[in-house]
Design goal:
The chain is of the alpha+beta class and 81 residues long. The chain has one helix at 30-44, and strands spanning 3-11, 14-19, 22-23, 51-56, 62-67, 74-78. The radius of gyration is 16 Å and the shape is elongated. Residues 40-81 have a biased composition (Basic and acidic residues). Residues 39-81 are annotated as: Disordered. This is DUF2188 domain-containing protein.
Amino acid sequence: MSHVTYKIVEHDGGWAYTVDGVFSESFASHAKALAAARRAASEQRVPGRTEAIEYETADGKWHTETAAGDDRPDTDVEDHP
C-alpha cells in the first residue's frame, strides 16, 4: 500500500497544503488549510469501483490494466505550525 502525506505550509500570502511538491489553492488561515488537507486525505482513502483503465505511454504504446477500487493509499496530515 502506498502512503501520501499532506503537509501544511505557508504559500502565496496565505496557507496551503502540499503533496509531493504540488500545492493546493491558498487559504486565508492556517486552520482552513488544515481542515482542507484533512478532508482531502480522508476522501483519498475512500474506496471506489474496480475498473479497466487504458493509457498510452511515451513511446506510443497503449496498455490496459485493472485498477482495483479498494487499492487506496494510507494518508496523513503533517502540520508544523
